[in-house]
Each structure stands twice: as structure tokens, then as C-alpha cells.
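Reopening this one. Same input as before:
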Amino acid sequence: MMQLTKAIWGHHEGQNVYLFKLSNGQMEVSLTNFGATIAGIITPDKNGQKQNIVLGYDDLAGYIADEFYIGCTVGRFAGRIAGAALNINGVQYPLAPNDGDKNIHLHGGNKGFNKRVFTVTNEAITDDTASVELYYRSPHLEEGYPGNLDIWIMYQLSADNKLSIRYKAVSDADTHINLTNHSYFNLSGKQQNALNHRLFINADSYLVSDENYIPTGEVKSVVGTSFDFKTDRVVDNGSRNECYVLTKNTVGLAAILSHEASGREMRVETDMPALVFYSADYLDGQFLKNGGLCLETQYYPDSPNHATFPSTLLKAGEIWEQWTELGFGW
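Same output, byte for byte:
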């Protein structure tokens, strides 16, 4: 039986922050409108023991102070933009150079969507689904981006253990957009290294990047390289931060993550063109290095600077819609 609960979790900048719990009787997903964030995904293992399989904080204060984009929606632009600027229709728009001293714009700026309180626009429950829709208006020149951008994000849990994320956006001026969810998955359900997980990525090629994770523009085959996950294998390497060009030879399949000891598996499907695999080697504090794996469905990093990449330009008045679905088994 589908269930949806809602409780006040705190307040931020004069706005109510809620914690939602979506349940289908087998698994439970916790969401908050702070950063449109996935705060927990509880599933059973092969023996029926239920555990949380994403990294998260126990309270709102943790997410407010968070520096690792734990579980949040990243925007307006996921990934890096070299030169910390956009050139749109001949106009230069400076962006926050917030990736150290490298003159690189990262994950939407100093205060991206991960630190914004979204408005709750819909809560719905049917015999087969439970869903929450969140909305945010990003004003013109917020973090440097042109246009008043309206975005809607719907999270929906189904009776067959699928969590879908549907994005919709519209702007009143030409702008760039690239949204993703930044959850860290550890299917063991424990605080331990996640490099023993097995991973399949449905990609024949990846983007070659420089030492600052900026794409050079070269798209290279994974064959014969350490980047090849076309056959599922143990992750092992703890320094992964690559953008994979997804192969559209199956209906939206992007990746499959599995953990042998627990029996858990997660299937990622999307209509976005790329997947960034990040093995969390920069995690510290209360989180273990490599304590979770990110599988970020999105467009290519630094796309505004590469005419050959799939365009992230959203023209005024046009509707931008994308989706990602996570399917869980055990």
C-alpha cells in the first residue's frame, strides 16, 4: 500500500522546510524541499534487513552546512564551466569562480539549487504511486545566469520499487541549464568503503578531461582502457570522476550498480545524454572517503564552451524536460 507523510523539519531563511516520506510497503524514500534533496532510501537486503542505502544527514542543519552536495539537486548547471562565464548571443555573463582558485564555475555557484528552499506544489498518492512536486524560481542573474528560470522537480515512488525524477524548466531569456541529482549510493547499507560494488555503465565512450576535470573536447572509446564498464565489474579504483557518453541502444539504460553481499541492485535509466561517475574520493568529516558512489545523469560538463557537445542552451519560452528513473531490487 502506498503511503505519503509530511512533517515540518525546520526553517531556513523564513521558509518552512519539510521532510516527506514515500513508502510502498517494501521500501521508503525520504525527501526534503531544502535543495530538492533525497535524504534517505531504505530498502531490504536479500535477507529482509532494511537499511538506508544513500549518504545523508540526521537533520536540516547538516544539509545547510553540507559541502559535498549530499543527495541534492545540482543547478543551474551541474559540473564545471571553464572560465567561469557564459557567452550568450554575444553577451558575456560572469559566473562565480567557486572551484578553488582555478577560475572555474562549479555546480551552480556559491549558492546553487542545493542551498535553496523549494516550494511544495503538489503531493499525490494513488494505488500505485506516491509523489511530491517541488518548484523554484531562480531570478535573473542569480549566480550570474541570465533569465528568470522556473523549475519543477517531481519525485515519484511506484509500487514496483522505482523512483523517478522528472525535471521541467522554462526561462524568459536564453540561458544554460543542466540539472542532476547528487546522491551518494552505498548498497551495503553500512558506513563502509563502496569500492567493492559492481558497476555496469552503458557507454562506449567517455570525455577526455584535463587535471581540473574540464573536458578537452575529445570523445574517446572506453575499449582497452580502465574506463570500460561495458561488462559489469568491481569498481575498485577510488579516484573516479569521469563523464560517460551513454549508448542509446536500449530504452534509457544508463547503469546498473550492485552489491553482492547484500544482494541489492540499482538500475539507472534516463533520457539524458551522459552519466558522471564519481567515486567520492573527496569525502571526509563524518563521511568515509569512497563511502558512496555518485551516478549523475546529466549533460556534458562545460557544454557552453563546446559547440560539438549536446547543447544545454534553453531558449526563452521553450520547455526543458528530462527524466531519470532508479529501479531497486534485492
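So the earlier flakiness isn't reproducible anymore. For the record, The longest strand covers residues 319-329.
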